[in-house]
Amino acid sequence: MEKIVSLCKRRGFIYQSSEIYGGCGGVWDYGPLGAELKRNLRSAWWNTMTREREDVLGLDASILMNPAIWKASGHVDTFADLMRECSLTNKRVRADHVDPQDGVVMKYSGATSPTGWRWDRVVSALMKNGEHIESFRKRIRALIAQNAGESAGKPEEIELLNEEKIDAVNGSVDFHPETGGALGEARPFNLMLKTYLGPTATEADVTYLRPETAQAIFAQFKNVFDSSRVKVPFGIGQIGKAFRNEVTPKNFTFRSREFEQMELEFFIKPDEAVEIISGEVAAWSEGADLSEPQPNWGWELWHRYWVDQRTKFYQGIGLGDVLEYYWQTPADLAHYARACVDILCEFPFGTEELEGIAARGDFDLSAHQTASTKSQEIFDEELKTAAAKLTDEQKEALIQKRLAAEAAKTKGEPLPEPAVRAWFERLFKGSYVPHVIEPSAGLDRMALAVLAKAFSETEKVDEKGKKEIITVLHLHPRVAPIKVGVFPLLKNKPELVAKAREVYALLKKHMNCFYDETASIGRRYARQDEVGTPFGVTIDFDSLGEKGPELLDTVTLRHRDSGEQERVKISDLLGKLLPLVS
Ligand code: GAP
After folding, report:
1. Within 13 A of 100's CA, how many CA atoms are on the CB side?
2. Residue of the CA atom closest to atom 20 of ligand 1
3. Helix axes 271-278, 392-407, angle to 10 degrees
4. Which of 108, 105, 163 is nearest to 131 (CA)?
5. Mind listing the pLDDT tens digit for each residue in 431-473?
6. How far is the CA of 261 from the centre of ligand 1 (A)?
7. Rounded to 5 degrees, what angle do the CA atoms 454, 573, 551 make?
8. Please, what is the Cα angle at 318 between 315 and 320, to 5 degrees?
C-alpha cells in the first residue's frame, strides 16, 4: 500500500488535501493523472449504466437539499456509527475498529505540572507487552501535554499522580489503538456533516452535506417520471460527491470524508403487480438466464440481474478476477431490505466492500410520501386492466398471501390488515409506489481498486549488473489516464519531430496522449509503463521512408503488457487504437 501511495503522489495521481498546511484528515485531491483516471471510470459507469441502456435516465442533483429529506430518509436519527472516546486524549474511534490488544493496565488519579496546572481525572491506559515502563510514562505525559495545551508546560515536567498497576489483559478491545488510553462507553455519532443554509447561521438554518447521492433520486423520482415518458421498470442514475464525517478515515482514499458515489435506483413493480399482470412471478434458481430482463421478473430476479450486470462492468475495467461477494444474512439486513450483496475487492489491506447492491422494497419512496405528503405512486394501465379480470376469490387469495407474509416477518412491524387491504385496493386500480433495487458504488474506491490491481514491481539487472526496480501499472486501456505515448526516436532530427507532432495531433483529438522527446526510448517507455499507458507509438527513420517506400508513414506501436511491437500505418492507427481504449 505504501508503494502505491508513494507512486500516486510521485506521478500525480493522488495528493493529500491541503498538504502544505499539514493536510486535512480523510480528504484527498486528484492530480493530473488521477483526474483522468477518475474521469474514465466515471464515463465507463455513466455510459454502461445510462447511455447504453434504454431503461435508465441520468440525474445531476445538488449536494445541499431541504433537511426534511434527511429526516424522512432516517439519516438524521440513525445514520450513526458507534464510537468510543479515549479517556486520555478524547480521541474517538469506531467501536468496531478496535483490534484486540495485550498488556498491563496502569491507573493514575490525575497529573500536575510546575506551571500550577492540574488535571483531576482518574485515567487508565494500556502499557503494551514489551513496552518499558519509562517509555510508557513518557508517552502518557506527552499525550496529556498535547491535550492540555500550553498551560501544562513541558511534557517531561508533568507528574503523573498515584500510579497503580491494575491488571494484565489479553485480547482487550477497551483501549484506544493509537494512544492506549481506556475507552469510554460506545455512543452513536451521526456521520452527516452539518452546515448552515442562509445568513443567520442559527439552528433553523441547519442542513447537511449529502451523505449519499441516492436520496436526491428518490426526492426527484416523480419529476423524472412525469417529464420523461418512462414506464416501470426503469432506473435513475446519478454520480456525485457525498460527505461523511467518518470517525476513522483510513486506508488512503478507501474511507474518506469527501468522496464520490455512482448510484442507480432501479424502480420495479411490486411482486403482486407482476403476478397480476403475468400470472406468476418467475423464481430465481442457480444458472437462471439473466441476460434479458423479462416481464415476469420480481424483485429477486431483478436483484440477481443487477449483481450480474455490475460484475460484468467490473470485468470490463479489469477487476473481474479480484471480486468476491458477501450476501448479507437476515440478521445483517435492515428491516425493510429484502436482500443486499456487497461486492468485495482485494485491496492491499484486505478484502473490502467496493459496491453494495440492495433490494430496498418501497421503503424510500414511501418514507418521502409520508413525510412530504406528496404522492409517490405511479399509475399502471396494464395493471389496472389485468386486475379488472381477477375474480373476488383471486383478489382475496393475493391479499391472504400477503397477510401471511406480513405475519411471518421476523424484523420490523407487520403491516396491519386494514393497511394491507387499503394497499391492495390501490393496486387493483393500477396504482402503487414502485420498489427499488439499488446498486451503489464508490468512485474513489473503484479508482483505488484499479490502481492496486494494476500495480506491479519487478527487479531488473542492467548490462552493468546494476539492479533496478521496474514499476508497471497494468491499467485496463479503457481506464488508463494516458492512452498513448508518442515518441520521435531522436529530438534533434526535425523530420522525426515534425512527423511525431503530426501523429500526436491526429490522436490527441480522440484520446489523452502524451508527447515525449526527452531521454532514451527505453526510458520513455518505462515512464509511461509506470503510469499505466497501454500503448506507445515511436516515429523512427523507417517512418520517413529511409528503408524503402513501403515503410513510409508507418510507426512502431508498442503494447505495454506483452511488450509486442508492430508496424502500423499512421492512417490505420486511430482505427486500431480507438476500440481498444474506449
Ligand atoms: N445509498 C446507499 C449507500 O450509500 P453505502 O454502502 O453507505 O450505501 C455505497 O455506500 C458505496 O459508497 C460503498 O460501497 C463505497 O464504495 C462508497 N463509500 C461509502 N462510504 C465511503 C467513504 N467514506 N469513502 C469512500 N467511499 C465510500
Report:
1. 5
2. 255
3. 150
4. 105
5. 999 999 999 999 999 999 999 999 999 998 888 888 989 999 9
6. 7
7. 120
8. 40
